[in-house]
Amino acid sequence: MASIAELLEGKRVCICAGSGGVGKTTSAAAIAAGMAARGKRVAVLTIDPAKRLADSLGMPELGNVERRVDPELFAAAGIDPGTGELWAMMLDAKQTFDEVIRKNAPDAETRERILSNRIYQQLSAALAGSQEYMAMEKLYEIHADDRYDLLVLDTPPSPNALDFLDAPRRLLQFIEGRALQVFLKPTGLGMRVFGRGASVMFSILRRITGVDLLEDLAEFFGAFGGMVGGFRERARRVGELLADPETSFVLVCGAQDEPVAQALRFHDKLVESKLPFAGAIVNKVHYGGELGSEGADLVPALRAELGDDGLARRVAANFADFTALASHDRHNIERLAAALGTDAVIEVPYLDHDVHDLSGLVEINRYLFASGEKERAVTVAR
User: How far is it, in rounded angstroms, from Cα 342 to Cα 71?
Assistant: First the structure.
């Protein structure tokens, strides 16, 4: 069984993908920390609103620009990263959207017209899919700067883990859609589409609020129209980055039925889209005991040890439930590996505590960066 370091050999982008609540953020942080500990210059990007990544890296907060993790934290965790560096950031979709406008605007006047426009300010904060699209934009931007050996992306906590793959296409559909084209010149055809009743309404709103909504619409769409080509080109380049051989998708899931099913659906989407798949990480795996024949009937032994028949029976029942859970996890992991057609499925056991600092990430990396017999030895020794 390969380690995560082997799966990422020669890669410059690692995208941790999967449904919400399966440990994507922790996995992304652990991968980034582990690769930095091996001498790489690594940046990890998160879209996690709970800010767990900042906590796990010992940082008070993260922003829309990368910040370096204090090297002394590695030393405190017993790691000498050598020349390795770990950087981290948490995406601000609105701020990233503003940066895209600044870079794509043909001139300073157009840039300021859009950024100060009330319609844009509302649209950029609420546009469906903007968070997913901006995650791709930020990934592309940092990758283009060529400052890191590896970028690790923690994908958005979306109910549908496939959303971010379709985000560039959805945004382009909006930009190039007929509805937007109609409003590019609202004083012409757009006015006729609004109709006389709408014009009266806009006039009333202007008198009451002092805001000329129609003027704002005209200002926004008139300025934005000249940027469609820039957005189209960047979306194309983002798509090329996702499909690049130096990019790898790592699926992250739990060992339960639904997370495994979602991971398989995501894998099908990757195959359909011809995107590079590296392997899978299965978090919080339960392992059965090594009791052999003694496990057939624990009650007498437990009764002798505990001195309480009722307690002995409850402990034995709990162990039986745990063994059944471990067996179910094993069955699901084997099903996942068979469906993926690979043995590159890395298992991380259910730990006794939550991961909230770099030392916790180091513990997870005992499993992510182990391989073959060494990985099994680590698991059994636990």
Answer: 36
68: part of which helix (H) or strand (E)?
A: strand 67-68
Residue among 125, 131, 129, 127 at smallest CA distance from 47: 131
Distance from C-alpha of 138 to C-alpha of 363, rounded to nearest angstrom: 29
Q: Does 258 fall in a domain?
A: yes
Domain membership of residue 352 (yes or no) is: yes
Residue 68, phi then psi, degrees to nearest 5: -80, 135
| CATH, residue 82 | 3.40.50.300
CA distance 202 to 102: 30
| 132: in domain | yes
Domain that holds residue 141: 4-164+245-285+348-381
Q: Is residue 201 part of a domain?
A: no
pLDDT tens digit sequence for 212-231:
455 566 666 666 666 667 77
Q: Residue 361 corresponds to which tokens in the numbers above?
A: 């990430």
Total number of domains constituting the chain:
1
pTM: 0.79
pLDDT digits over 63-107, tens only?
788 889 888 888 888 888 888 999 998 877 777 778 878 877 888
pLDDT in tens, 250-283: 999 999 999 999 999 999 989 998 999 999 999 9
